[in-house]
Amino acid sequence: MTNAAFRQEVDNGNTLIHTNGMKIAISIPDSVFRDVKRIAEEQKRSRSEVIVEAVKVYLEKLESLRILQALDEAYAAPETGEERDARGAALDSYMHTVLEKEEW
């Protein structure tokens, strides 16, 4: 048996697909494993691909929450007089350049 044939027989090519990343060992509840396995089979993807996609979505969600918290902090402070004047000037400009052209 050749080396390639042996590898194909042992792992069916599943682990050879993901050799460009970090291999880790994690513990997950049996129910989560069954769900990941079922989804992977339904989508004809590897379990690793399903888990990597899920982690990416989770990390994107965390980043969105971080940005939202930063915005909440930025807008939590009361509006200064300078900000109020700038907002008023922008509204006046909008009214004169856009709204005056509209038919009412």
List the helices and strands and how they pair.
Layout: H1 3-11, H2 30-43, H3 47-76, H4 81-97
Characteristics of this structure?
4 helices, elongated, single chain
Shape: elongated
Distance between the termini: 85 Å
- As a whole number of angstroms, the C-alpha radius of gyration is 28 Å
Helix-and-strand structural type: mainly alpha
Beta strands, count: 0
How big a fraction of the residues is strand? under 5%
Order of helices and strands: HHHH
Q: What portion of residues is helical?
A: 55-70%
Largest sheet: none
Name the poorly predicted regions. none
What number of domains? 1
- The total count of helices amounts to 4
Mean pLDDT: 84
Descriptive overview:
Helix 2 crosses helix 3. The protein is mainly alpha-helical and 104 residues long. It has one domain. The chain is 67% helix and 0% strand.
